[in-house]
Design a protein that fits this description.
The chain is of the alpha/beta class. It has a domain of about 180 residues: Vaccinia Virus protein VP39 (Rossmann fold), CATH 3.40.50. Helix content is about 40%, strand content about 20%. The protein has eleven helices and nine strands. It has a seven-stranded mixed sheet with strand order 3-2-1-4-5-9-6, with helices on both faces. Strand 4, helix 6 and strand 5 form a beta-alpha-beta unit. The protein binds S-adenosylmethionine (SAM). The site of S-adenosylmethionine has 19 residues, from helix 1 and strand 2.
Length: about 260
Amino acid sequence: MVSDWQMVDEGWGRKAVDFATLNEPSNCREYVTLHQQLDVRDGDRLLDIACGAGLALELARARGASCAGIDASPRLVAVARDRVPDGDLHVGDMRALPWADGHFDVVTSFRGIWGTTPEVIAEVHRVLAPGGRLGLTVWGHVKRSPGFWALEPLTLAAPPQVRHQAEMVALGRPGAGEELLEAAGFVDVRRVDITFAWEFADPEHFARALAAVGPAFEAIQAVGEDAFIEHARSVAREHVREGLPLRAEIADVGYLARKPA
Ligand SMILES: C[S@@+](CC[C@H](N)C(=O)[O-])C[C@H]1O[C@@H](n2cnc3c(N)ncnc32)[C@H](O)[C@@H]1O
């Protein structure tokens, strides 16, 4: 039987190269900010959960960390392996991490653990060494964000899938992450605002980049690829600024915590 996580690649992996080159580079602001907050440094054994195409791992590697990652999408993990050849990279389910207890000094996850997957937090706690640091990000109040327009085309998905997206994002609500992490035994839990901005050359590039994310696949299943692309292009046209990139700033929440020593 095929498990639910094995279906993830259908959405996230189908345009892995577009995702890695057109979409993920904009996330670097978030990666750099969280690594800085966690003080990722030489010799840290770091795991990135739902590592996608591995850009965050490549940046952690540049800070001297020895890197491991897991993602459900084989096609994204293939890109991550290309970027971090000495990384310990696995295709798998984040709810069953293939590492021993206490194996890592740092665990990160960038919009990979959501309100719909709270059980992953117990796994994070298990694989962290005593005193280990956790940093994860989730969307904040996206509808109030100046860059909400860039996510709006994803709401073309069927209503149950749009509801599921809302349940995922619920982890960003004030108090939600703090409660989850403290209940799992983490201490020094802190919520921080993270800089997050996507930039694109023009509406055409934006539409192609957005079409590469998993939730876009759900929207494409509902309305078809051509209609999705045309909708995304027309939304973006309203935000074109002469001589500047298209820029979408989106509220992003970081949770920092520590496993007791
Ligand atoms: C929003 S993307 C974030 C990817 C990456 N962290 C980034 O910053 O671009 C969510 C990721 O979660 C992965 N994913 C979804 N369900 C998963 C599961 N059960 N186990 C592992 N990875 C999963 C997807 O393949 C996708 O790469």
